[in-house]
Amino acid sequence: MAWGMGLLMACLVGSGAQAAEFVTVAAGGTAGVYYPLGGALAEIFNQHVPGVNASVQATGASVANVNLLVQRQAELALIQNDIAFYAANGTEMFQGRKVDSLRGIATLYPEVIQLVASRASGIRSVDDLRGKRVAVGDIGSGTEANARQILEAAGLTYRDIAARYLSFAEAAANLRDGHIDAAFVTAGIPTAAIQDIAVQRDVVIVPIGGDLAQRLAQRYPFYTQVTIPAGTYRGQEEAVVTVAVKAMLVARTDLSEELVYQLTRAMFGNLARLAQAHARGADVSVETARDGMSIPLHPGAERYYREVAP
Question: What value does the mean pLDDT take over residues 163-178?
């Protein structure tokens, strides 16, 4: 009898309890920017969205995060907006496997495309890369796609340069040692490796602006224009205009409008926590949250923006 009453009470308690909504934020490596921001987001959601149980997951970043969303192993993810665009359109590293299950919440901060050249090379514009030895990133990487698209907008192809498929670390070492003339680097600024090169070798940051930037953005909507402030690197006496892709927060399409609305509202209501987690968190704002948005917005995020920034 006692056992039966206990079972009945357990069932009654269970039926009245509200199940927690589990939200996993797929981030990046623990040494990068994505992981501390993802951790701060999970903390914000836990504290400010009732019924949510949020956690951050260390991952291989953008491409891996798309796959985690597709496999329903995460609800939210930090992804570069160009990678999200490739996934949604079945291009580049997602050639032949279009992903329809991604929706944007917000773009967060710029990942700046920096074209770094040795001063002795004479390279002062993208057109000056013709005939030069240029590191364009690893084959199949986001940086390599950025380099190819920028060259294309300038009327150049890899046939016009001596392309070197090098990782960021390899490109930095080769530029420092004089084995290449220039390198494309996609990273937050200031980039420590470029700072180190600039101390050892005279380099210039080549502008990617004006008509070139406009042509690029017309074809690839994930690019935004940014300025690298004067003095960011040794010997850089003037501000340099260039382009950037943006880190963004992405949700699965099957998350409810109400949930994503509440998550979006909580994030923008606690921006100081993001800034505390990492310096790049200070770049997040509702005013810029749709700049470079490369995939459709989730209805929940769209509802939030209609309320605060119509």
Answer: 90
Q: Which two tokens stand for residue 298?
A: 């989730």
AA identity, residue 259: L
Q: Where does residue 175 rank: exposed (0-12), middle (13-18), buried (19+ CB within 10 A)?
A: buried
8 A C-beta contact, residue 88 and residue 294 = yes
The tokens for 117 are: 């050249």
pTM confidence score: 0.80
Whole-number Å distance between alpha carbons of 189 and 215: 24
Q: Tell me what pLDDT residue 2 has.
A: 41
Report d(CA 259, CA 256) in Å as an integer: 5
The closest of 185, 183, 177 to 201, measured between CA atoms, is: 177
- Give the C-alpha separation, 143 to 156, whole Å: 17
- The length of the chain is 310
* Pair 182, 135: CB distance under 8 Å: yes
> What are the tens digits of pLDDT across the range 103-152?
999 999 998 999 999 999 999 999 999 999 999 988 877 889 899 999 99
DSSP letters, 101-127, are: -EEEEEEEEEEEEEEEEEGGGT--SGG
DSSP H or E segment with residue 250: strand 240-252
